[in-house]
Amino acid sequence: MKNICLKLLLFFPMLYWAQIPIIETPDKKGGFENNNKVILQKLNIETKITGGISTNVITMVFKNNSNRLMEGRLTFPLPEGVNVSGYALDINGKLRNAVPVEKEKAKEVFETIQKRNVDPGILEKVEGNNFRTRIYPINANGGERTVQISYNYELKKQGSNYQYFLPLNYSTQIPEFNIKTSVFQNSVSPQLEEKPDGSFNFVKNGNVWVAETHKLNYKPTQNLKINFPQTDENQNVLIQKASDNSSYFLANLGIDPKEKAKKLPNKLAIIWDNSLSGSKRDHAKEWSLLEEYFKVNKNLSVKIYLLNNTFDEGKSFKINDGNWNELKSYLSQVTYDGGTDFGQLKSVKEDEVLFFTDGLSSFGDLKLTIKNPVYTISSSNNANFNQLKFISNKTGGEFLNLSENDPKKEVRKLLYQSLKFIGIENNSSLTEVYPSLSQTISQDFVLTGILKGNQATIKVLFGYGNEVTEAKAISLDVNKQSVKDWEISQFWAQKKLNELEIFEKQNKNEIKNISRQFGLVSNNMSLMVLENVQDYVRYEISPPSELREEYNQIVKSNQAQKDVRVNDLMAKAEVMTENLKKWWNTDFEKKPKYYPTPRRSKDTARVMDIEEVVMVGYSARTVNRSVASASSTVVSSPVAKPSLQDNVVQALEGRAQGISIRGAGSVRGDFKSKEIAETIIQKGKITTIDVKSDAAYMKFFESAKKSEEIYQIYLNNRKDYAETPQYYFDVAQLFFKIDDKKTGLKVLSSIADLDIENEELYKLLAYKLKQAEVYDKELWISKKVLEWRPFDPQSYRDYALALEDNKDYQGALDNLYKILNQSYTREMANRDHGIEETIIMEINELISNHRNELDLKNINPKIIADLPVNIRVVINWNKDNTDIDLWVTDPKNERCMYSHKSTEIGGRLSDDFTGGFGPEQFLLKKAIKGKYKIETNFFNENQVSVAGATAIMAEVFINYASGKQERKIVVFQNKSERDTSNRDGVLIGEFEF
Q1: Long-range pairs for 205-212 at CB < 8 Å and ≥24 separation?
Q2: Distance in angstroms (rounded) separating the CA atoms of residues 49 and 81
Q3: Closest CA to 213 of 195, 193, 190
Q4: Do the Cβ atoms of 991 and 932 come closer than 8 Å?
Q5: Rounded to the nearest 5 degrees, what angle is found at the Cα of 250, between the Cα atoms of 248 and 251?
Q6: pLDDT of 3 higher than 50
C-alpha cells in the first residue's frame, strides 16, 4: 500500500501559536490543500505558572477520516529562546515518552524501522527555531494517533504585569477541547484580560489558582490572556536542589531599562530580504517600526539593497522632516522571488544597517563582511533567531523581534543606546551563569546558573557599551527559595543552549552534551520514541524509565539482538572490480551471418580458416606498434613463416601469424592507462531530449518568447502554484532555454524557500544546478543534504560528484571512497545493494583522468582498474521508496533493462534499485555503429510529498574515463505519480556512433 505523506502544520505566534493548526494533505501536484481527510480530533492544553515562568504540555489527537494509511508530519515554530523539552507518542494506546538521540542517528533509525512497517516517532529541530515530528502510521478509516509536546517558557513583562498569552482563534470546531491553567504561589488572583468563554475563571485551591474548561464541538471566540500583577519586590528567585551540594537557580530581576541618547545616522542602509520567503514576513509591523523611526530621525539619506539569491543595489532616498512615503511605496512594490543567500552580503558605506529578514539562508552560508552596526529585524513566525543574533552581536548592532514584541517599543533599540547586562562580579560559589554575553535590557532580566552550597549573593553589572553604571544584588538561599516539582534545571539548560547555538560550529559537542543530559531538542539532538524494547536494545538507545528494567535485563542476559551493521562494501567492491575487469576483457564479437558452405579441397579449406581468423572483427594493421581494439590488442612484428599445419593449430587456439588477442588486463602490464583509453575512444554524438512538462500552466507561456514576458506571466500566475515546486522548475527551464541564466537561477532557487530541511527539494535543485553548470551552488546544496542524511550512500556520492564538477578531485575521490568504508543498517544496505558497481566506475574515472592530481596511498589497490567505455548512462532520482528503471536500446533493437541486464554486444546494466534514490548504470565498452535509444520508466513510487513528482537526472557520457569524455545531462520531473509500469518509457536521449 502506498503511504501518503501528510503534513500537519502548527504555527505559534508571539508566545505560543501563530495560528491554530492548519491540517493539510498533498494535492499530488507537490503542494497541499485544506480538507477533512485528517482532523484535529482532540486538543488538551495544560499550563503551570509560577514566578514568571511557565511549563506547557499540549496533547493533540489526530484522526484519519480517509480510506488510506497516512504518515504524519507536524511542523511548528516556537518563540525566541524556547526549545521543546518533552515529546511523547501513543504506542499501543499508551503515551510513551521520547528519549534524546543524536539527530542523524535518530533519522537513520526512524527510516530503517519504517521499512519494517512499524511505528517509531521522532521530533527534530530544523532550520530556524522550527520543530518537526514525523508520525507513522495513522491508520485509515478513523485511525487516531496522539502526540504530546512540552516546553518551558519565561513570561514577558507588560508594564507592571507578567503576561501569559494563548491565541485561540480556531477557524473550525474542535470535537473535544480542554484547557487548564494552574498558577502557583501567587497571593493575588490572576487577572483574566481575555478568556475563551464565560466558564473559564480562576478558583483558589489551597495555594494554587486553577481555571479550566471542557467543551465538545467547540470553536473558541476569544484568546486567553492572563496578567500577573507584580509586588514591590524587584526580584523573584526559584531554586531546584541538585547533587553534589549544588542547586540550579533562576532569578527574575526587575530593572528600569534606562536609555541614553545616541548619535543617529545621517546615512542609513536598509537591506531588504526580497527572497520568496520574504513575502511571508509581517510587513505591517515593519512599516510600523520604520514609521516610528522616521518620527525621531527625520532628516537623512537611505540606500536600499535587495537580497535574495543575489545582492543588488536598489534606489536611494532622501528623508525630509520624517516624510518617508516614497520609500514606503518603493518597498511596498518589491517583488519577492528567489532563494535566500547570506553569502551574497557585501560591505556597505552607510553608517548603520537595518536588515529585514527571517534569518533563514536557504541558498548559501553566511559570509559577514559588513563592519558597520547591523540591526537584524525579524517579523516572521519562522525565523533563525541564532543567526540573527550572531550577525548583530558580531557587528555591534541589536536584534529586534517584531513577531513577539511591539514595534513601537523595539524601535527604541535603533534610536537610543540601551542599558545592557554586562556581567557579574566573580563569585566562587557560582558557576555556569547565563547569559554570559552582553544583553540588552527591555523590561525585565532573567539570570540563571549553578550555586555551590546553600547561600550566595550575586552582584549583577549593568551599563552602556563596556562601561558599568550600576549594579544589582541578588540573594540566593536554598532553604528559603527552593521549589518542588519545577525543573529549574531545564530553564538553565535552555538558556545555556541558546547561547551555545549562536556560535554553533565551535560548540557542537557541548550542544549535544547539554541536549542529551536535559532532554532538549537542538540542532544536533532529536527526541525519539520506539515501538518496543527490542528496538531500543537493537539500536543501542537508552529507553524511557518505564522500559529501563526490561532493557537492562535483556542486555545483562546477552539476549540482545543488536543491530548488525553492514560494513563489507569494500569486500563487495573488490569482487565487483574483478567482475567489471572480466566483463571489460570479454570479446563481445558480432556473430557472423551464416552462408551455405561451398565444397573445397582440404588444403584450400584450411587456408580460408586462417584468413577468417586474421580478418574478421579485428582490423589488424601492419605497423610496428601495438593497437588495441574494442576486444583485442593487435601486435604486428616479423615472424618466421610457419607450416600450414601450424597455422591450423594457431587458428584453433585463437592465434595466427603476427596476431595476438589480449584484453585490458594484459595490456596494462605493457602500456599506460592513457594508451588503453585511446584504443576505446570513438567519435560519437549525444542527443538529449527536452522532456516537456505537460502541466496545465505551461499553456500560459506558449506565446511568450522574451524574458520579460515569461517573467511577468510567471509572477501573474504564481499565487495559484506558490507551493508547487514543479512550477518553479518548469519556468526556470524556459529561461535556461533562451540563455537567461540569471533569471532562470532566481526562479529555480525559490524552491529552496518552499520548505525547511527537505532533502527531496534540495536534490531536485542540485540536479538542475548541475545541468545548468552552476557548480558552486550544486556543491553547497549537496553538502546540506549530506549534513542532513550522512547515513545515505547517495548523499556522499552526490557531494563527491559536485566536488568533481568544482575540480576538487581529491575531495571527490575521498567521499566516494567513504561510501565503501561506511557501515549501514541492514535495511539501508539492502535498499542500496549493488551501489558499489557505480562507485567503482566513478572512482576509476577520477583516477584515469586525474591520476597526477590525486593521492592514492589510502585507496585499496584491488579496486583500481582501467575501465574506459564508449557509453555510460547513470540515472538518479530525488525520492526514497521509489523505483525508476533505465532502458537502453542498441542499434540491433536489443533493450538492456532490469529483466535483461546484458546484451549481445556487451551492454551491461547494474542492479535494479527498487527503493532509495538509485543510481542505475548502463555500460558499453565498445559501441557498434548506429543509434542507441535511452529511456527511463517510472515503475513505482510509495509516497507523495511536498517535492511533488519524482525528479530524475540522467548523466549521459561517451568515451567515459578515457581522458576525452563528453557529458550531457537530462533533468525532468516524472509526469505521473501513478504506477506506470505498463506504459512506454520516457525517451531522454540518443547516442550515435
Answers
A1: 208/182, 208/183, 208/184, 209/182, 209/183, 210/180, 210/181, 210/182, 210/183, 211/180, 211/181, 212/178, 212/179, 212/180, 212/181
A2: 18
A3: 195
A4: yes
A5: 140
A6: no
Q: Could you tell me the CA-to-CA distances from 429 to 241, 425, 432, 509 in Å, in that order?
A: 15, 11, 11, 26
Residue 615 has pLDDT above 80, yes or no: no
CA separation for the pair 576, 584 (Å, rounded):
12
Per this entry, what is the length of the chain? Answer: 993
Output the pLDDT for position 504: 86
Confidence of residue 114 (pLDDT cuts 50, 70, 90): confident
Q: What is d(CA 103, CA 551) in angstroms, rounded to the nearest whole number?
A: 22
Amino acid at 782: S
Cα–Cα distance between 565 and 738 in angstroms, integer? 50
Contact 434, 495 (CB under 8 A): yes
List, for residues 697-715, the tens digit of each pLDDT value.
999 999 999 999 999 999 9
DSSP string over 684-724:
-EEEE-------GGGGGGTT--SHHHHHHHHHHHHTTSTT-
More confident residue, 937 or 743: 743
Instruction: Determine how many CB atoms are found less than 10 A away from the CB of residue 941.
Output: 23
Is residue 645 packed enough to be buried (19+ CB in 10 Å), middle (13-18) or exposed (0-12)? Answer: exposed
How does the average pLDDT of the chain come out, rounded?
A: 85
14: left (phi over 0), alpha (psi -120 to 50) or beta: left
Residue of 350, 395, 393, 390 lying closest to 369 (CA atoms): 395
**In which element (H, E) is residue 573 found?**
helix 569-585
Distances (CA, A) of 652 to 478, 606, 655: 100, 11, 7
Question: DSSP H helical segments within 359-482, as ranges?
Answer: 385-395, 407-410, 412-415, 478-481
Residue % of the chain over a pLDDT of 90: 63
Q: Which of 165, 157, 389 is nearest to 252 (CA)?
A: 157
All three cell numbers of 781: 546544496
| pTM for this predicted structure | 0.83
Strand partners, 434: 448
Burial of 173 (0-12, 13-18, 19+ CB in 10 A): middle
Q: Within 851-895, where are the H helices? A: none
Q: Is residue 977 within 8 Å of 944, Cβ to Cβ?
A: yes
Beta bridge partners of 4: 70
CA distance 269 to 324: 14
Side-chain half-sphere exposure of 584, counting CA atoms within 13 A: 25
C-beta separation of 573 from 820 below 8 A: yes
Q: What is the mean pLDDT of residues 427-437?
A: 95
135 vs 518: CA distance, rounded Å? 23
User: Do the Cβ atoms of 239 and 478 come closer than 8 Å?
Assistant: yes
- Answer yes or no: is pLDDT of 524 > 50: yes
Q: Are 887 and 894 in contact (CB under 8 A)?
A: no
> Which residues make Cβ contacts (< 8 Å) with residue 908, sequence separation at least 6?
583, 896, 901, 902, 922, 923, 924
Amino acid at 54: S
> Is residue 40 a contact partner of residue 28, using CB atoms and an 8 Å limit?
no
Going 348 to 350 to 351 to 352, the CA torsion angle's sign is: negative
Helical spans, DSSP H, in 183-304: 283-296
**485's grid cell:** 516539582
Q: How many Cβ atoms sit within 10 Å of the Cβ of residue 206?
A: 7
How distant, in Å, are the alpha carbons of 456, 622, 633, 833 from that of 667? 83, 19, 8, 32
Nine-digit cell at 295? Answer: 518620527
Residue 243, all three cell numbers: 547533587
pLDDT over 70 (residue 562): no
Q: Residue 683's pLDDT band (boundaries 50, 70, 90)?
A: very high
